[in-house]
Amino acid sequence: MSFSLLRWSIALIFFCLLAPPAFAAEPERRTASKPSKKPAAKKRLVRIPGGKRLRHDAAAAFGRMYTEARAEGVRLWVISGHRSWRQQRYLYRLYRKGLGPRAARPGRSNHQRGTAVDVSVGDESTPTYEWLAANACRFGFKRTVSSEPWHWEYRPRATQAPAPGVDCLGQPLEPAEPPAAVAGPDPS
């Protein structure tokens, strides 16, 4: 064995013996001790009707909105919810090449945060869009991209609830239908 090889072997042994314990620790243990900026409940993704996923609080609000829309005969068909970094990067690359619709740069999309949802609305004259425009603010959702009528974001702190008696557009709510008169005995 040459002197140079012996020196490298001894150096390697000392390095392994004296290396800091952090090198041997599992990454999960090192990162688990760091405090999180957001509560764990907000990071959890939950499935919404249609199979897409949103952040826990956004999914709960969307579920309430979906149920009410459905009761009024409006179907909210979700075409996109949470996106991974890879999905967002793919969509952004398509957009940059002129092969896809507008997409935010990876890391800047609220889809990646699980707070944005794309709903199939057609255009701004469809019943689905009109229902969303009139009611979404009551559930904390608002349209944030003027060129995308389908894109709605969950922003409960920045979304003002409508005044009593009006919808999100400021239009008066339709009065509830009076109960039907009960037929009684004929007075004649």
Automatic annotation (TrEMBL):
Q: Output the InterPro entries linked to this UniProt entry.
A: DD-CPase-like, VanY-like_core_dom, Zn_M74/Hedgehog-like
- Which is an annotated Pfam family here? VanY
The answer on whether this UniProt entry bears the keyword Signal reads yes
* Region called Disordered, residue ranges: 161-188
Q: Which UniProt keywords apply?
A: Signal
- Tell me which residues make up the D-alanyl-D-alanine carboxypeptidase-like core domain: 52-156
Instruction: Please verify whether the record's keywords include Acyltransferase.
Output: no
Please give the superkingdom of this protein's source: Bacteria
The UniProt regions of compositional bias labelled Low complexity, in chain numbering, are 179-188
Annotated signal sequence is: 1-24
- List the CDD domains hit by this protein, alphabetically: Peptidase_M15
Report what the protein is called.
M15 family metallopeptidase
- Which organism is the protein's source? Hyalangium rubrum
Taxonomic lineage is: Bacteria, Pseudomonadati, Myxococcota, Myxococcia, Myxococcales
